[in-house]
Amino acid sequence: MTLKIVKPGLATSIQDLGRPGYFHLGIPEGGAMDRLALRAANLLVGNPEDAACLEAVFMGPEITFDKAASVAITGGEMPILVDGEPKESWTSFTVEAGQTLSFGFLKSGARIYIAVSGGIATEPALGSRSTYPIGALGGFHGRNIAAGDEVPVGEGALVEEGRTVPADLRRGPGNPAELRVLTGLYWYRLTEKSGEAFFNDTWTVAPEADRMGYRFRGGLPMEFVEREQPFGAGADPSNIVDGCYSYGSIQVPGGSEPIVLHRDAVSGGGYFTLGAVISADMDLIGQLQPNTSVKFIKVEMDEALQARADRKALIEKIRKELV
Amino acid sequence: MLYDALRFYPGGDRAIEIELGDGMDFTINFIVHRLVAAVRAAGIAAIEDLIPELASFQVNYDPDRISYEDLCNEIETIYAEMGRGVTGSLPSRLITIPVLYDDPETTACIAAYRKDYPDKTPDPDLVCQLNGLPDRAALRRRHSSSEYWVAALGFWPGLCSLLPLRPEARIIAPKYNPPRTDTPKGAIGIGGALTCIYPDATPGGYQLIGHTPAPTYDGAQRLPDFQDSLALFRAGDRVRFLPVGMDEYEDIKARVAEGSFRHDIIDYQIFSVDLYLDWAKEQAQAQEGKA
Questions:
Q1: Distance of CA B223 to CAs B211, B219, B226, Å?
Q2: For a Cys staple, B183 with which of A98, A220, B63, B204, CB 3.0–4.6 Å?
Q3: Residues B136 and B194 in one domain
Q4: Coiled-coil intervals in this record (chain A) (predicted)?
Q5: A233 touches chain B (CB under 8 A)
């Protein structure tokens, strides 16, 4: 079967769990910004957890189905309509052949995940269907979906309607959102006072927030430990000899506006990074809207690993509900 | 400067940043690549990716399979067993990249930036000023007078960081501030002590001096030289820039478009680090003698 894209939404892309292992070629892991939501959507319609879904940001697409399929929408809250009739989020429902799936205005969060039984079945690239437009990899011919596209879907059986993820197992960012950070990387470049200010300040999400990174404004400019810049690092104290950027690492060009690097981020560069958001909180960033208030919370490695274990336990609970 | 010991820093809970030294320097970079190769050869199952950089490298790992401390200890042990010093030989391909200096595409890109920032000195002129070069012709001669070492890959798919191997070919340049929002695919730029070739149209900050019509990244693997990899370069390759005129530049463009273009790659060569370092020292001494 195929999904006929009537309207694409704002920047709707095909995503799965990404393609780890190619950062050394400059190709990022990519994949869903909110992995928990993608896994839950797939489980709801009986797909493997890592099947490819549509990820829509801020605005939903309009899609006509040529065959009946089970569908589930997770992530942010956006009214769901099938031929104008409302449907519940985080809950499976059937779309019949010839019916059209559409969406109202976003109410909370930033991204929704649209899982279809059978999973999106475009050609994988380097082991993943995730769209990486910069490298023309994955997705629909290497790009986001556009009006008129006919997106292929694999073979899948219908599941019963009304399968649901209980409300207490759903996750979204609070307000202010709290992002836990492990300091490290080039943290030693900051003065002690400046390091403390980073965690004390309240930041807001800037409009420059996408799959590559989320920029934050509103905190104090950073102060750097004085040093003679090493050869090739450039004169600005926020510059370093080019180094790697890890997932979630927080770079601060010019020392003023931190950018948390996300799934499609570049693998390295010459800006200093002060640490990284812990892996358990990366999903939350994908659901942040511009102007949301954010506090960065300093944690240690054992807390980061505990949060990671808690996240895994949460996914296991969702699995138990649905499998 | 090479540090006395490795420095480990967490990059979140699934990456470690390992610094060997500081500065854009061939010797440190060579040791980075040796250590990365040794870590790869050790076959530690929890490692998901190894990313060499100029004076550091990053390990992406699965924290459910190995702890941060244990992985740091393993890498420290491998470094100790590897022995210090820079010696040995390694296979190193020599790839020739045709370049049209002061080409129309980067010239237009520089002009577009200067519409918003009129005080910005045009890139080739700025690079000449900062490196004591009398004119653009002298810049072209210096830039094409050396082989370059592929010190690192990454930032964007297929992007290479190139260090000149001839000491007197060293050219330094600051990066754009603020960065450009776009750069032509194939643009050749200088930032810090590095040359790069933009593999695609991307934002950027290096000072642009020329353009190559020969692709360095092919996501669709359309051209014959990209059958095995999407990226042309591997760390440890060497690159030579061959100045071409407009006619040849257009001819290469046409052959790329029709899919028949082949890169000039010599792949039977061995790069002796000992011989190279001796030679580089002599060159540097000779240059000091002149000055």
A1: 19, 10, 6
A2: B204
A3: yes
A4: none
A5: yes
Q: A6-17, pLDDT tens digit by residue?
A: 999 999 999 999
Separation CA A281–CA A314 (nearest Å): 13
Determine phi and psi for B74, rounding to 5 degrees: -60, -45
Q: Among candidates A141, A111, A124, which has minimal Cα distance to A263?
A: A111
Residue A166 predicted with pLDDT over 80? yes
Q: CB-CB: which of A20, A266, A270 is closest to B175?
A: A270
Cα-Cα-Cα-Cα dihedral sign, residues A110, A114, A119, A124: negative
CA distance B10 to chain A (A): 5
Closest CA–CA distance from residue A112 to any residue of chain B (Å):
26
Give the tens place of pLDDT for each residue, B175-204: 887 889 899 999 999 998 899 999 998 888
Q: Where in chain A is the domain with CATH 2.40.100.10?
A: 177-312
Nearest to B10 among A25, A26, A301 (CB): A301
CB pairs under 8 A between A and B: 178
Which range, of A62-66, A233-237, B36-40, averages the lowest pLDDT?
A233-237
ipTM of the complex: 0.90
User: By the CB < 8 Å criterion, does A249 face chain B?
Assistant: yes
**To the nearest whole angstrom, how far is the Cα of A290 from the nearest Cα of chain B?**
21
- Tell me phi and psi for residue B67, to 5 degrees: -85, 160
Helix (H) or strand (E) holding A39: helix A35-44
A179 at interface of B, judged by CB pairs closer than 8 A: no
Q: Which of B54, B63, B175 lies at the smallest CB-CB distance from A234?
A: B175
What domain range includes position B193?
Answer: 94-290
Contacts of B157 in chain A (CB under 8 A): 25-27, 134-135, 137
Residues B110 and B254 in one domain: yes
Question: Regarding predicted confidence, which is higher, A229 or A210?
Answer: A210
pLDDT at position B206 is 94
pLDDT of residue B284: 85
The reply to whether B171 and B122 lie within a common domain is yes
3-class DSSP state of B265: strand
Q: What is the pLDDT of residue B263?
A: 96
In chain B, residues with a C-beta closer than 8 Å to the C-beta of A180 are none
Q: Both B70 and B105 in a single domain?
A: no
> Are residues B48 and A21, on separate chains, in Cβ contact within 8 Å?
yes
Instruction: Give the tens place of pLDDT for each residue, A20-47.
Output: 999 888 899 999 999 999 999 999 999 9
**pLDDT tens track for B221-266:** 899 999 988 899 988 899 999 999 999 999 999 999 999 999 999 9
Examine the domain organization and report whether B175 and B217 are in the same domain.
yes
Predicted pLDDT of residue B291: 63
Which residues in chain B are contacts of A244 at CB distance < 8 A? 11, 15, 17, 51, 53, 56-58, 154
Beta bridge partners of B21: B2
B1–A230: do the CB atoms touch at under 8 Å?
A: yes
Residues of chain B with C-beta less than 8 angstroms from the C-beta of A305 = 13, 63
Mean pLDDT of the region A162-180: 92
Distance, CA of A61 to CA of A191 (rounded, Å): 47
CATH code, domain with B130: 2.40.100.10
The strand pair at A53-57 and A203-209 is best described as unpaired
Query: B172 contacts in A (CB within 8 Å)?
Result: 232
Based on the fold, state whether residues B62 and B205 are members of the same structural domain. Answer: no
